[in-house]
Write a structure and sequence with these properties.
The complex is a heterodimer of chains A (111) and B (112). By secondary structure, chain A is mainly beta. Chain A has strands at 3-7, 10-14, 19-26, 30-38, 45-50, 56-59, 62-66, 70-75, 84-92, 100-101, 105-110. The chains are: A mainly beta (111), B mainly beta (112).
């Protein structure tokens, strides 16, 4: 069974204090790993798709990396507007269209 | 603007009542999905459709039904058989040849 574990559950940072969010996964053949940002009461907003170990993608203050067992979302010099819940999901080669989601990391950035 | 719309934003259901949640997309995507989000849990797949007039059950299909008569539309009915319907419902779509699913703004369903 595919599994996704995100840590920490919640993270509080001071503005400008860089940190990383973790997404550990167990899947029988990774087809893709996805990062989304979700604001309270809204739908998830797509951030990144990673396909193979060693791959990295960047967008503004965010950088996503992928190994064979986990993915990291690095946040450099965060701002209060980066406060949100960050969701990780995996798609297995054997699971067709199905995504398995983690429970998310709630990030709060204080000014 | 291309995107996914869901309506209503809030929906109230009475005991024994069926309610229908709307999902429309103008992205020309073939695949559409319905997820349920509960506090402290990851998104769970209810139903999905890869093509018009065809759909498959996800992990938690009991108490729900769908139809896919048009490419743009994938409505979800929450039936009276769903005993715990209170949740945030999310619709998503995906284009052909890509893996990324894009989400709508969601509908919050509450039970009166």
């Amino acid at each position: 069974e595919d599994q996704v574990t995100q840590s920490p559950e919640a993270l509080r940072l001071q503005e400008g204090e860089s940190s990383s969010l973790n997404c550990s996964y167990t899947v029988s053949g990774l087809r893709g790993l996805f990062w989304y940002r979700q604001d309270p009461g809204k739908g998830p907003e797509f951030l990144f798709t990673l396909y193979s170990a060693g791959e990295e993608k960047e967008k503004e203050r965010l950088k996503a990396t992928l190994t064979k067992k986990e993915s990291f979302l690095h946040i450099t010099a965060p701002k209060p507007e980066d406060s949100a819940t960050y969701l990780c999901a995996v798609q297995a080669e054997s699971s067709g269209d199905k995504l398995t989601f983690g429970t998310g990391t709630r990030l709060a950035v204080r000014p | 603007d291309g995107g996914i719309t869901q309506s209503p934003k809030y929906l109230f259901r009475k005991e024994g009542q069926n309610v229908t949640l709307s999902c429309e997309q103008n992205l020309n995507h073939d695949a559409m999905y319905w997820y349920r989000q509960d506090p402290g849990q990851g998104l769970r797949l209810i139903y999905y459709s890869q093509i018009v007039n065809d759909f498959q059950k996800g992990d938690i299909a009991e108490g729900y039904s769908v139809s896919r008569e048009k490419k743009e539309s994938f409505p979800l009915t929450v039936t009276s058989a769903q005993k715990n319907p209170t949740a945030f419902y999310l619709c998503a779509s995906r284009g052909t040849g890509v893996e990324t699913q894009y989400f709508g703004p969601g509908t919050r369903l509450l039970v009166l």
